[in-house]
């Protein structure tokens, strides 16, 4: 439409619009490709019904595509094609047609598609580069084919028409974008196939369908997926050891299937696996291996290299191969000599006793070179023909002994071993060795003298040097080490030899009187195996000195002399012998006063030459002195003396008879008193002594004497049998007394015993012996235990109790009603540890009683504190005293027993200078005093017992530090504490110990006992001391007799003083003397005699009672053993008397025996003993039935009167007391009551006419 037409069309639209014309729409379609003139449609179809068009105005200009391609009839409105339409060029036409009426029709003509185009790819060929490592499923995007048709006529899909590619690839349309996806189905391997040619076909939906094709060239790109591969698995090469550096050895070669950089290889030697020393190197590009360092076949003959090939990939692959390089030998080494010596130590040595051809060493010769150079010739030089080489193998030689060796002649050989090879030129080596000849023990020791003689005084102390023997041994080492000994011989015990030095010393005191000459052998033994030895003889001539005291033939002489013996009468002769010879053996005797002076006051004198002791004055025993103890001393002419004691008894004459005082004795006793009851004690005295004064008591036989017994030694009268059969009576008997010579008292003792009868039987104790214990701190009134007596069944009275004996101090009381024993006074275990009470039980006022024993043990409590002998003491010590020196020994005593009496010591001091042994109480110095400015120390020593609670006591020890000891002059004892033991039997004047003090002066030299004013004295002696000290020598002597039981130890001080150049110096030391107990006390029984009561019975009753003795001695001397000297059949004794068999009172109502106690442990020679009489009375029990004495048949006259005695029966019962009283009664046969039986056994008639009874019975 031109611009004019368009303008007109627009004016029409405006007119129509103003007039209310309508606008309609018309859509028409027509297929493309139809021939021109094809009617498309009618515009009028779009006008309203009834509208007359009258022609149409078209909106398009004449040159528009509408008029070019369409034919529009302006009047009819018919639209037809002007040309063949092509949808792909224009698929739609639009225009507007207006009528004259103003109606407008908007017309759209759509060109419908037909399948007139095939799919077309953008390019015919596509090339792809795909990595061979691409995994299956990898998608490659390609441009899809384009089809100008639309709808179903457009591209519908793709396919690969190569059938052989179905397993490797597939194609598919990509959704949405019209693209094409190529999908990898399998794994690629470039090395197997590096190119794929695919034909991809695109097809549309027409029928028949149209297609288009695409050639896809797939190039498989290389990846580094193949390692290098060597052409060999192992390389072998050889190189001479003298090859210069960079000499080629071999070449390794590897290939890689990959391409490009991935196949570009480099080589390297793995040093960690071979050739760490880098003897070889490799060209990294060519693989050529060359020598890098000098080679030595002898050091290493073969090299194993690991060569690695690595490609050039980003992640490189590698592989390795083995390269073995053998180093070829050249003759560049001398032979090597190895010598192995066959001695135990491996040293170059051989025994001089080695046999010929004995191997000394093994020699191996080797040449590191190969080939002919390995043959070696070995030979030996030197050795004086004593050694040779013997070849044992191709390379082994043995060095052997070729001649006899003697170390004493030649002890060292210089040998040269030479080894020569056969190389070109030949090389040799040599080794020099020094072979030492070892010693064998082929030489015996040789003494300097075959015989030694020496003169020695017999007073030479043990340990004195006698003679020095010497010997030498030509061997060496252990073979020449000598040890000396003295073989066992008659004199061998007298001497001792130092095993190494050969010094012979005395081993014991020599005694010329026994052995004037001492002969013995000395043996020298070397240390060889087997040892060699030799001997020498030694003679020691013992020279006499006055070393023997006169010796009495016995230490104690006993003699007796009758009083008034005439003066001059010799009593006995003592004799002392002196083993010394000459004047040293002559002895003179004298009576001593104990102070080395003759006793001028004795009633006796002694012949100084013969030793006879004679009466010097009249002796009157009646004057009161009945024994004389003389001290006899015997001295030789050298001043040595000894002493003996003479005990002289003055014998008495039996000129006095025993006399009773009083002469008459009266006592009363119950008829129920038990046998063994002591009723009184008669006493007679005899003025004579000894056996003449020993009185023996006996009961004068008489009618009633059998009921009593008297102790023959003590005069104690006891019941020997029951008095119950006597009833109430008065019994008289006499007791005689005789001395040991049989002389009787002129008037015997008359004894009257009034027996009172009681119908009451005494209450009997439940036990015959009770045992209780009570602590010693129990307050007064504390209960101890209860005894109980049981009254007879027919008794209504309660017993009353009392303590009859055993408590002289009245420590205990008994409640008379209950039998409770309680304390009545304060107890003390240390004073009295046990008490044996006798308790009686009485009924009412009757004197009848029974007894029991009560053993009360008083238990110890810790009620005694330890006690020091002194509450304070003072010692003086030198300022130069060495640490560790014992300064003082503390000793405290605790009277308690057991752990309560055990004491431990400690210090309560602010000073660390001192320490104390907790058990021994030894105070020691801990540190040096020389730097101390303090000169006075107060040390508190605490003694604490082990009781609970423990008790303590304290002693203050003042330690004075002598300031002068640090000055120019000092004095000090050898030790600050002397401790010695001495027997309590030691005689007066016995030497105890010697103390020594020494000093020094810078200008005057040492201070000794010979210095001016030097003296010793004893200090701090409590009371009279048993010791004295010689002021010059320091020897302490016993000045009086000791008694361990009185004083078991002594503590005192000794002071030494000396006059120095300016001031007097002094020192003190402590002396502790412990007295050793001797068996000088005999055991003592607690009673003079013992009585016990025990019930008879069919079985042993066990414990009867205790017989106790004590001994003042201690330790083994105080250990007591008991024995029975009689009646051991029924009893045994260990301090406690027990029965061993059943006891029967009817056979024997009492047993008497002697108990002997002996002290000591197995030492019968020194044992002491004592004896005592013990009697055991048996109490009756009702263990016997009555027995009739005879048959009891009798005749009764028929006219016997009522009450007349028909018969008297008698039965006997061996028991006593009520147990033996027989009661009679009729059991059967008297049913009619004709007779009456009295308790006395009398049968009495009850009916006078006995025949009437008989007739009655007959009818």
TrEMBL record:
SUPFAM superfamilies named among the record's database cross-references: Cadherin-like
One of the GO biological process terms: homophilic cell adhesion via plasma membrane adhesion molecules
GO cellular component: catenin complex
Main location: membrane
CDD domains listed in its UniProt record: Cadherin_repeat (cd11304)
Domain Cadherin residue range list: 22-121, 122-230, 231-337, 342-447, 448-552, 553-660, 661-764, 766-868, 869-971, 974-1085, 1086-1188, 1188-1241
Keyword Plastid (UniProt): no
KW Transmembrane helix (keyword) present: yes
GO terms of molecular function: beta-catenin binding; cadherin binding; calcium ion binding
Keywords: Calcium, Cell adhesion, Cell membrane, Glycoprotein, Membrane, Repeat, Signal, Transmembrane, Transmembrane helix
PROSITE patterns tied to this protein: CADHERIN_1, CADHERIN_2
Taxonomy, superkingdom: Eukaryota
Compartments, record wording: Cell membrane
Membrane topology designation: Single-pass type I membrane protein
Signal sequence extent: 1-21
Record Pfam families: Cadherin (PF00028)
The name this protein goes by in its record: Cadherin domain-containing protein
Organism of this sequence: Denticeps clupeoides (denticle herring)
Gene of this entry: dchs2
């Amino acid at each position: 439409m031109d611009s004019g037409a368009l303008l007109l069309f627009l004016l029409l639209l405006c007119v129509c619009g103003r007039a209310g014309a309508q606008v309609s729409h018309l859509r028409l379609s027509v297929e493309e490709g139809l021939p021109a003139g094809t009617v498309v449609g009618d515009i009028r179809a779009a006008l309203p019904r009834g509208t007359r068009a009258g022609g149409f105005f078209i909106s398009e200009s004449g040159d528009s595509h509408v008029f070019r391609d369409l034919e529009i009839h302006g009047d009819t409105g018919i639209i037809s094609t002007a040309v063949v339409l092509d949808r792909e060029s224009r698929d739609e036409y639009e225009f507007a047609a207006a009528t004259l009426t103003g109606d407008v029709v908007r017309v759209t003509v759509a060109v419908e598609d037909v399948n007139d185009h095939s799919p077309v790819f953008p390019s015919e060929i596509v090339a792809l580069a795909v990595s061979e490592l691409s995994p299956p499923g990898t998608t490659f995007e390609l441009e899809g084919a384009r089809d100008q048709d639309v709808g179903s006529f457009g591209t519908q899909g793709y396919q690969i028409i190569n059938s052989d590619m179905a397993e490797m690839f597939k194609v598919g349309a990509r959704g949405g974008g019209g693209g094409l996806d190529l999908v990898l189905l399998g794994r690629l391997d470039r090395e197997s196939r590096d190119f794929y040619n695919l034909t991809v076909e695109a097809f549309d939906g027409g029928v028949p369908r149209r297609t288009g094709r695409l050639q896809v060239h797939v190039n498989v790109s290389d990846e580094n997926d193949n390692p290098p591969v060597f052409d060999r698995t192992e390389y072998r090469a050889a190189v001479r050891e003298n090859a210069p550096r960079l000499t080629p050895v071999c070449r390794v070669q590897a290939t890689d299937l990959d391409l490009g950089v991935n196949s570009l290889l480099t080589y390297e030697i793995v040093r960690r696996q071979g050739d760490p020393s880098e003897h070889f190197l490799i060209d990294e590009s060519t693989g050529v291996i060359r020598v890098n360092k000098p080679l030595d076949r002898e050091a290493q003959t073969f090299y194993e290299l690991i060569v690695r090939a690595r490609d050039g990939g980003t992640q490189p692959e590698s592989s390795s191969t083995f390269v073995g390089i053998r180093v070829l030998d050249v003759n560049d080494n001398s032979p090597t000599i190895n010598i192995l010596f066959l001695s135990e130590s491996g040293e170059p040595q051989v025994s001089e006793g080695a046999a010929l051809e004995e191997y000394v060493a093994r020699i191996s010769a080797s040449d590191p070179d190969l080939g002919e150079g390995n043959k070696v010739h070995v030979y030996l030089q030197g050795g004086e023909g004593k050694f040779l080489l013997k070849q044992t193998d191709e390379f082994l030689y043995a060095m052997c002994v070729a001649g006899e060796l003697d170390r004493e002649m030649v002890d060292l050989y210089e040998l040269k071993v030479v080894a020569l090879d056969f190389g070109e030129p030949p090389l040799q080596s040599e080794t020099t060795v020094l072979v030492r000849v070892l010693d064998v023990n082929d030489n015996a020791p040789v003494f300097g003298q075959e015989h030694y003689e020496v003169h020695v005084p017999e007073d030479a102390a043990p340990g004195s040097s006698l003679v020095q023997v010497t010997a030498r041994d030509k061997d060496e080492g252990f073979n020449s080490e000598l040890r000396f000994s003295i073989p066992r011989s008659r004199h061998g015990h007298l001497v001792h030899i130092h095993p190494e030095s050969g010094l012979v010393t005395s081993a014991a005191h020599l005694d010329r009187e026994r052995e004037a000459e001492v002969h013995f052998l000395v043996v020298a033994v070397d240390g060889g195996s087997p040892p060699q030895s030799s001997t020498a003889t030694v003679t020691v001539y013992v020279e006499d000195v006055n070393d023997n005291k006169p010796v009495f033939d016995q230490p104690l002489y006993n003699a007796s002399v009758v009083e008034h013996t005439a003066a001059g009468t010799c009593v006995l002769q003592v004799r002392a012998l002196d083993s010394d010879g000459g004047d040293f053996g002559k002895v003179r005797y004298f009576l001593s006063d104990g102070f080395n002076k003759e006793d001028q006051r004795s009633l006796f004198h002694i012949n100084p030459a013969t030793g006879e002791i004679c009466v010097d004055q009249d002796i009157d025993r009646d004057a009161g002195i009945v024994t004389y103890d003389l001290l006899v001393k015997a001295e030789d002419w050298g001043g040595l003396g000894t002493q003996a004691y003479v005990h002289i008894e003055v014998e008495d004459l039996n000129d006095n008879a025993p006399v009773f005082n009083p002469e008459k004795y009266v006592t009363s006793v119950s008829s129920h008193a038990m046998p063994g009851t002591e009723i009184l004690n008669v006493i007679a005295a005899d003025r004579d002594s000894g056996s003449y004064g020993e009185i023996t008591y006996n009961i004068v036989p008489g009618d009633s004497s059998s009921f009593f017994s008297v102790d023959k030694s003590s005069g104690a009268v006891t019941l020997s049998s029951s008095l119950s059969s006597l009833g109430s009576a008065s019994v008289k008997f006499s007791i005689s007394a005789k001395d040991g010579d049989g002389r009787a008292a002129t008037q015997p003792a008359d004894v009257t015993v009034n027996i009172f009868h009681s119908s009451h039987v005494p209450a009997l104790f439940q036990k015959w012996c009770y045992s209780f214990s009570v602590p010693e701190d129990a307050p007064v009134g504390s209960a101890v235990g209860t005894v109980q007596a049981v009254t007879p069944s027919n008794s209504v009275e309660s017993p009353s109790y009392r303590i009859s004996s055993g408590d002289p101090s009245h420590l205990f009381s008994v409640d008379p009603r209950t039998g409770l024993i309680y304390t009545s006074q304060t107890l003390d275990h240390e004073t009295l540890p046990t008490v044996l009470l006798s308790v009686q039980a009485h009924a009412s006022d009757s004197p009848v009683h029974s007894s029991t024993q009560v053993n009360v043990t008083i238990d110890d409590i810790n009620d005694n504190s330890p006690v020091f002998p002194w509450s304070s003491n003072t010692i003086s010590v030198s300022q130069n005293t060495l640490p560790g020196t014992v300064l003082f020994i503390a000793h405290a005593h605790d009277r308690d027993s057991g752990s309560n009496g055990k004491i431990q010591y400690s210090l309560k001091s602010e000073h660390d200078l001192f320490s104390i042994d907790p058990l021994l109480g030894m105070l020691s110095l801990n540190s040096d005093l020389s730097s101390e400015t303090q000169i006075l120390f107060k040390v508190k020593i605490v003694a604490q017992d082990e009781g609970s609670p423990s008790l303590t006591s304290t002693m203050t020890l003042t330690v004075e530090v002598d300031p002068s000891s640090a000055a120019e002059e000092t004095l000090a004892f050898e030790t600050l504490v002397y401790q010695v033991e001495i027997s309590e039997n030691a005689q007066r004047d016995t030497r105890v110990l010697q103390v020594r003090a020494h000093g020094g002066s810078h200008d005057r030299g040492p201070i000794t006992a010979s210095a001016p004013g030097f003296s010793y004295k004893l200090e701090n002696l409590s009371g009279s001391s048993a010791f004295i000290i010689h002021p010059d020598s320091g020897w302490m002597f016993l000045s009086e007799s000791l008694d361990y039981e009185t004083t078991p130890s002594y503590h005192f001080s000794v002071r030494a003083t000396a006059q120095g150049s300016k001031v007097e110096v002094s020192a003190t030391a402590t002396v502790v003397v412990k007295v050793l107990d001797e068996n000088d006390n005999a055991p003592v029984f607690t009673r003079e005699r013992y009585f016990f009561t025990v019930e008879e019975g069919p079985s042993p009753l066990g414990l009867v009672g205790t017989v106790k003795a004590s001994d003042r001695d201690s330790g083994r001397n105080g250990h007591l053993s008991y024995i029975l000297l009689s009646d051991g059949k029924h009893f045994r004794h260990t301090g406690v008397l027990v029965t061993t068999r059943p006891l029967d009172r009817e056979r024997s109502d009492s047993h008497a025996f002697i108990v002997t106690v002996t002290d000591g442990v197995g030492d019968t020679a020194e044992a002491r003993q004592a004896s005592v009489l013990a009697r055991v009375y048996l109490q009756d029990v009702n263990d016997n039935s009555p027995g009739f004495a005879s048959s009891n048949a009798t005749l009764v006259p028929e006219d016997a009167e009522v009450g007349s005695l028909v018969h008297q029966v008698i039965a006997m019962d061996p028991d006593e007391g009520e147990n033996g009283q027989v009661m009679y009664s009729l059991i059967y046969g008297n049913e009619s009551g004709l007779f009456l039986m009295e308790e006395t056994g009398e049968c009495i008639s009850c009916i006078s006419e006995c025949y009437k009874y008989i007739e009655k019975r007959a009818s």
